[in-house]
Specification:
By secondary structure, the chain is of the alpha+beta class. It has 2 helices and 7 strands; from the N terminus they run ββββαβββα. The strands form 2 sheets. Strands 1-2-7-6 form a 4-stranded antiparallel β-sheet, with no helix packed on it. It has a 3-stranded antiparallel β-sheet with strand order 3-4-5, with no helix packed on it. β6 and β7 (81-87) form a beta hairpin. The N and C termini lie far apart (74 Å). It holds the Pfam family HSP20. Belongs to the small heat shock protein (HSP20) family. Keywords: Stress response.
Length: 113
């Protein structure tokens, strides 16, 4: 499992050899955690258990960094490598506000007193 950070996104990657795309489940819990889980099909789970007596399962939960766009999360699975892209949430800088007008009149005599 790997994690990489760029200026625009956070990238999570996992090597899942032998897992079919349909067996991968991704979800976001409480807008704070990314959960990656494999759910083997019943036939595949039975075959795997008969092969060596073990069932292959991947289940990881990661706390997401602050200020991410949860709705923009995407994933790609190619040749046994899962890559989850979590975009940063960018806030636009607020423009400076200038003051117009002369303001209250200042009497030079009042300032001198």
């Amino acid at each position: 499992m790997g994690w990489e950070e760029t200026a625009a996104v956070h990238l999570f990657s996992a090597s899942l050899p032998g897992v079919r795309k349909e067996e991968i489940r991704l979800k976001v819990e409480d807008a704070r955690y990314l959960v990656i889980r494999t759910e083997m099909a019943a036939a595949a789970a039975t075959a795997a258990k008969e092969d060596d007596g073990r069932r292959r399962v991947f289940d990881r939960k990661f706390q997401l960094p602050e200020m991410v766009d949860v709705d923009g999360i995407s994933a790609e699975y190619t040749h046994g490598m899962l890559t989850v892209t979590v975009p940063r949430m960018h806030t636009r800088a607020r423009p400076a506000v200038g003051l117009l007008g002369a303001g209250p009149a200042r009497d030079s005599a009042a300032w001198a007193a």
